[in-house]
Write a structure and sequence with these properties.
The protein is an alpha/beta fold. It has eight helices and seven strands, in the order βαβααββαββαβααα. Strands 1, 2, 3, 4, 5, 6 and 7 form a seven-stranded mixed β-sheet that branches. Strand 3 and strand 4 form a beta hairpin. The two termini are 14 Å apart.
Length: 199
């Protein structure tokens, strides 16, 4: 049995597109509280992503001890500042203005747990350079993208109209979408979970 411990639609879509048979169960981890605590301890964006991914996987794994549980998280940092998912369209606009014309780093972590213990993890990062953004472009982008921007730590989906925001992208596509998929598939295949199992 395979469980995704995430409410993320993009992560769910990636696993579905890869042909995996899984269920979804959210963890209930208070991500904001964990981020505040870790930030106070000067944790790196990568460490924050890994810790959250592990907490999600372990919590759901304890409730489903026989299942392989996938936890994942992503953080975005620019000029030493950590960004979260915007809560309103106005916040998304402010966030995009702060990222415009700059290069930010996106860290994505994935953890697999079983019986409440971490079995495996992988951390990947990408660098994305955003074009300078003016008011007219931002208005057009936010109108087209809609409230989907509120589901992403960067207020964009690279697989959609968010691609228009960038001049350069360095890193793995799946990592940018929020899940280091290729290392995960390799790990699962080594444990007999893959296309053969799903067929």
């Amino acid at each position: 049995m395979l469980i995704l411990a995430s409410a993320s639609l993009s992560r769910r879509q990636m696993l579905q597109n890869a042909g995996l048979d899984f269920t979804v169960e959210t963890s209930g981890v208070d991500e904001d509280e964990v981020k505040l605590s870790l930030s106070a301890e000067k944790a790196t964006p990568r460490d924050i992503a890994e810790t959250l991914a592990e907490l999600k996987a372990q919590r759901v794994s304890k409730r489903n001890p026989d299942a392989m549980v996938i936890g994942a998280d992503s953080t975005l940092a620019c000029n030493g500042r950590l960004f979260d998912k915007p809560t309103t369209m106005a916040a998304a606009r402010t966030q995009l203005l702060a990222l415009g014309g700059r290069t930010h780093e996106l860290h994505s972590s994935v953890v697999v747990a079983k019986g409440g213990a971490r079995l495996w993890h992988s951390n990947e990062h990408a660098r994305l350079t955003m074009r300078a953004l003016d008011d007219a472009f931002l208005d057009a982008y936010l109108a087209r993208a809609g409230e989907a921007v509120l589901t992403s730590v960067g207020a964009y989906q690279l697989e959609g109209v968010g691609a228009h925001l960038f001049t350069k992208v360095e890193g793995d596509y799946f990592t940018i979408l929020g899940l280091p998929l290729l290392p995960l598939l390799s790990f699962l295949a080594g444990h007999g979970i893959g296309l053969e199992k799903a067929a």
